[in-house]
Amino acid sequence: RRVHGGIDFIFLIIMVDASTRAVVERIPLLTIRAGPRDGEAWINRLKEEYAALIKYIQLNKENDNDWFTIESNKTGTRWNGKCWYIHNLIRYEFDLQFEIPATYPATPIELELPELDGKTSKMYRGGKICLDIHFSPLWAKNVPRFGIAHSLALALGPWMAAEIPHLVEAGMIVAP
Length: 176
Prior knowledge:
Elements: E1 3-4, E2 7-8, H1 9-15, H2 18-24, H3 40-62, E3 68-72, E4 78-87, E5 90-99, E6 123-124, E7 128-129, H4 135-141, H5 148-169
Helix pairs in contact: 3-5
């Protein structure tokens, strides 16, 4: 069992490749256990979330791996943006959205790609990607240290890397 900065890496080592792991280890860990119902503590948690997201975006740019944009509403409870995946030199771009659950961070966010709703069995109604088997246990072991940036790096990124090529080859999504 390997622990780095308080993160239990037993699941992480199995889930992601070395380059993803190296980036995730550099995303700041969060310390505040607060959700949208927690007033000022939620504002402080949001500051940590933004700092982690900024760092993750910087790391991606340094590694020439820019693959999403994201913004929130004023309260930080509703997020939307775009994410994309390059397959066979073609960029496939999708809307990305999610809401922060009232019980966050104990409950992970549900990342949604609405355009892909119904196109893969690894997705729930409304275009929510399946995180149950791989990401949810890792999240649970790392509350409150993981946040939105960690969800993107460890859930959405690997999910897209596994699913988008398969969907393209199956003809479920076509080149733009």
